[in-house]
Amino acid sequence: MFSNFDENYIYTEEIMATKENDQVDYVSSACAEFLRKQQDISNCINIKAFANLHNYTGLLSSSEAFIKQHFSEVAKAEDFLFSSSGDLVKLISSNDCCSI
């Protein structure tokens, strides 16, 4: 199991992924937390899409909250242009989304 985690370095160790252990869940959670901490205006749309694709509900929620909180800056980012119409409708129709 990983014993050290530092966002500036990658520690590698062989992981035996079995149904009986939770190492995969631990690594998955650590990766999601790393992405959450790295989230910014330029990558939040892609992190949200990644979280949605891989069903990381906690990361998805934090990405959506980040986008809503920084909506005026995110709307100016290049990745915003590639958002689906469904995502945009959901985002702008929410009560807690900031206006441009």
From TrEMBL:
BACK domain sequence ranges: 44-97
**Per UniProt, which keywords does this protein have?**
Kelch repeat, Repeat
What is the protein name for this chain?
Answer: BACK domain-containing protein
- Which organism does this record belong to? Acyrthosiphon pisum (Pea aphid)
